[in-house]
Amino acid sequence: MSIKQHVLFVVPDGVGIKNYLYSDVLKHLIQAGAMVSIWSPLPESVFDEVKQLHNIEIGYKQLVLKKEPVLTRFYREATTYARLLRNTALQNNATILSNWNIPKQNLKLKLLYQSAMQFGRYLAKDYKRIVNYETKSRQGWSKTIVDAYVGDLKTVEATSLFITHQRVASLMPICIAAKTLGINVNTVIFSWDNLPKARLCVWADQYLVWSEWMQQEMKQYYPEIEDSKIKLVGTPQFDFYLDENKVIDREQFAKTYGLDPQKKWICFSGDDVRTSPYDVNFLEDVGAALSDYKDTIQVIFRRCPADFSTRYDSVLNRFKSFMIPIDPIWHVAEDGNWTGNVSKYEDISMQVSLAYHCETVINLGSTMAFDFSMFNTPCLYLNYNPIENGEWLVETIYKYQHFRSMKGLDAVGWIHTKDAIASVVLKTIHDPNTIAVDRQDWMKVVVRHPIQENSTLIAKTIL
Predict the structure, then answer these.
(1) CB under 8 Å to 263, separation ≥6 — which residues?
(2) If phi over 0 gives left and psi between -120 and 50 gives alpha, with beta otherwise, what is residue 114?
(3) 379 contacts 360 by C-beta, under 8 angstroms
(4) Which residue from 217, 234, 128 is spatially nearest to 402, judged by alpha carbons?
(5) Phi and psi angles of residue 410, each rounded to the nearest 5 degrees, phi first
(6) In this structure, are strands 360-363 and 264-269 parallel, antiparallel, or unpaired?
């Protein structure tokens, strides 16, 4: 008699809901006869739409993630810094070290990070030391905490774990408990830029990656992980663009959001304040450059779901005659922590419709380039410094390791000065086939194709 599969989703933040629980991954698991449960720090209510969408009951337990022991965290931070040093040398790319950020406000944390840097320099001289101290870091979790998770896992009778991203260090004792019980642990790599950043904070049996590019990165950055554990399965977040039912009729979309369906729509997608501290200036430049064309063009501003601040308000007010904000439809965490922001299911149709109806998307190095390429729509990357202060430089952004994936490709259109905004946008509107001609080829480097197979592959890998 076969044992019924029971997949336990460990969902540390809201992004995992949109990418994995709203997608067809869950549908394929259910069709295969698997039971599904969820452990998450998020309240149970944010999963109501998941239950309604798939018409199933899902077991739920609210996680209260345990604080890392001091020595465990010290070893983790030291090995992280050591890996960043190694990755920097490996790729000859100094921007990789920009992922090391010392806390400024908390004195104790500042001292911990500074000490971790010193020890990390020692570890970086021998890769075996890095791996050894990562093992020591795992061993620092108390038996009491691990045993409690062992008991919880026995109670839920899970046959496999699926962690929706690899960056939360407090999930480690759950991984240890699962391995104690022989339960298979799967984790996805959260995003295309994560691996050089040394943010592999969980211990899994299988690591699910987006593409051959990411598969090779895993082998470079984590040579101790066996090839058989690195699973090339793609990512399900682009599945939604293949569903015609997700596209809202243009007239209806215009009516809902106060747009003119006869005008050309240009999307400006915002970044978080850390990535693009001068995003407001970029938006203002776009508004000023296109104001002469407001009789034929409307700019749609979609903010980053991690940024519901008021920083854009003055610009939106200045150009309100042709610049229309359409906010992401998300549950926003009351404590202001972006990890608690959760996409509502209706946001998917809104985002798909934006990509379908807009002539282009303008931003600073965003993955929205891939969303729009699903409809063969070119993306324009901003590539100039709106403020000359020497502290933040756009040149640094495009030297990040993940942008090397576009090497040799005409992947995006480039806006090199604010004076060029209007001409580049107009050319993109009137002659899109001359802009970013390799945009879909770049997508194939970053995300496994064919896209429509990815959810099935992920479900099969979990099972």
Answers:
(1) 295, 296, 297, 298
(2) alpha
(3) yes
(4) 217
(5) -90, 75
(6) parallel
Tokens of 207: 């690591």
Q: What per-residue confidence (pLDDT) applies to 1?
A: 37
Structure tokens at 244: 């015609």
CA distance 207 to 154: 23
**pLDDT tens for each residue of 319-344:** 999 999 999 998 877 666 666 788 99
User: Considering the entire predicted model, what is its pTM?
Assistant: 0.95
| Helix 454-462 × helix 24-31 angle, to 10° | 50
The CATH H-level superfamily of 242-446 is: Glycogen Phosphorylase B; (3.40.50.2000)
Query: Which candidate, 268, 451, 450, places its Cα nearest to that of 366?
Result: 268
Total residues found in the chain within this entry: 463
The reply to whether 242-446 shares the fold of 6-66+141-235+452-462 is: yes
Angle (deg, nearest 10), helices 172-180 and 143-156: 60
User: Rounded to an integer, what distance in angstroms lies between the CA atom of residue 461 and that of residue 20?
Assistant: 14
Per-residue model confidence (pLDDT) at position 4 = 87
The dotted CATH code for 6-66+141-235+452-462 is 3.40.50.2000
Rounded to whole angstroms, the Cα distance separating 202 from 161 reads 12
Q: What is the pLDDT of residues 128-186, one digit of tens each?
A: 999 999 999 999 999 999 999 999 999 999 999 999 999 999 999 999 999 999 999 99
Domain residues of the chain, as ranges? Answer: 6-66+141-235+452-462, 70-139, 242-446
